[in-house]
Amino acid sequence: MTVKYEVCLEDGTLVSKSHGVEFTVGDGYFCPAFAEAVKTMKKGEQVLLTVKPQYAFGEDGRSAVDSEGAVPPNATLHIALELVSWKSVAHITKDEKILKKILKEGEGYDRPYNGTMVQVKLIGKLEDGMIFVKKGHDEGSFEFKVDEGQVIDGLEKTVKTMKKGEHALTTVQPEYAFGSSESQQELAVVPANSTVYYEVELVSFVKEKESWEMNAPEKIEASGKKKEEGNVLFTAGNIERASKRYEKAVRYIEHDYSFNHEEQQQSKLLKVTCNLNNAACQLKLKDYKQAEELCTKVLELESRNVKALYRRAQAYIQLVDLDLAEADIKKALEIDPGNRELKMGYRVLKEKMREYKKKDAQFYGNIFAKMNLQQANAAKQEQRTPMIIDSKA
């Protein structure tokens, strides 16, 4: 909020005055009454407030601070307040490490998503105000594709929340900026562990065609492109981004009922390849349940796919479903008995099974030992307890 205000005591003594000050409603300003009052006001509205002590400075009052006067204990205040303007502030991520303040609202409802080509104007600054990057102001709009890693993660995530024509300030903490390493940028070096500040305007964007807007050949072509993008990212070590590309590739051809026979065959091959590649991503990301589900989808299409059987076995091993892992590896070896990777994997599995059997034997052995000890102690206690005979029996 940006407000103008004048605060007086009941006898007319001026306490504080400002021709324009900005604050966040959640943080409040001056006294609790400010945050409560602005929630009820419209832009340009002027009000006169009578503020009781509990919404002012209570029993303690407040000492004079710089040019502001003192407020006695239990004082009622009279405040003339004008709401000049307000700007929306939002946390972009759940961990609250990217903050966006809207300076100018955009138009319409559409926002960019992964794969969208965006045109922006931006200025990046350090905490001391030094500009380290400036793009799109002199040479025309700066273009980048969302989720391609061409700009920092925090900027991508911010742009995905913006509308066309929107102008915003975003604060990005190191985890979503340049991290723990120093980074040489266009106009200055960004020191390690720096929080950075961007002023960004989303000039325009061009979204990819939605699946429902495409015919069958277009869907197959789009799916193939996403698969190739995923392969490039996987090779470069960008596993999470690669996984998203494979997911998108499958979504294009998920519903292929209207495809002709040849198109269905192409679609099936793409589904098998992309789900297998995504399973490899999930194994690296240690999401073993997701890897198992992706391999199962492949096996529903090709029940004798050796890679799917082996990758699902790897997932089962990590999920400690060793019997299921053994069944998959055995089936894979029946199909491809000379496969060295399978043989090595089976040896590793057998070793793990021996380890778990040994641990189980030790675990149950300890339980039985404790039970035997408890029974022996109970028997000794019974022997020590004198037998009482009922004389009336």
Automatic annotation (TrEMBL):
Enzyme class, first EC level, given as a word: isomerase
| InterPro entries according to UniProt | FKBP4/5/8-like, PPIase_dom_sf, PPIase_FKBP_dom, TPR-like_helical_dom_sf, TPR_rpt
Report the EC number(s), separated by commas if there are several. Answer: 5.2.1.8
SMART domains registered for this protein in UniProt: TPR
One GO MF annotation is: peptidyl-prolyl cis-trans isomerase activity
Do the record's keywords include Iron-sulfur? Answer: no
For this protein, the record's Pfam families field holds: FKBP_C, TPR_1
Q: Reaction catalysed? A: [protein]-peptidylproline (omega=180) = [protein]-peptidylproline (omega=0)
> Per UniProt, which keywords does this protein have?
Isomerase, Repeat, Rotamase, TPR repeat
The cross-references to SUPFAM superfamilies, in alphabetical order and at most eight, read:
FKBP-like (SSF54534), TPR-like (SSF48452)
TPR repeats: which residues?
306-339
Name all PPIase FKBP-type domain ranges. Answer: 1-87, 115-206
* Family designation: Belongs to the FKBP-type PPIase family.
Name of the protein? peptidylprolyl isomerase
Q: Which organism is it from?
A: Gossypium klotzschianum
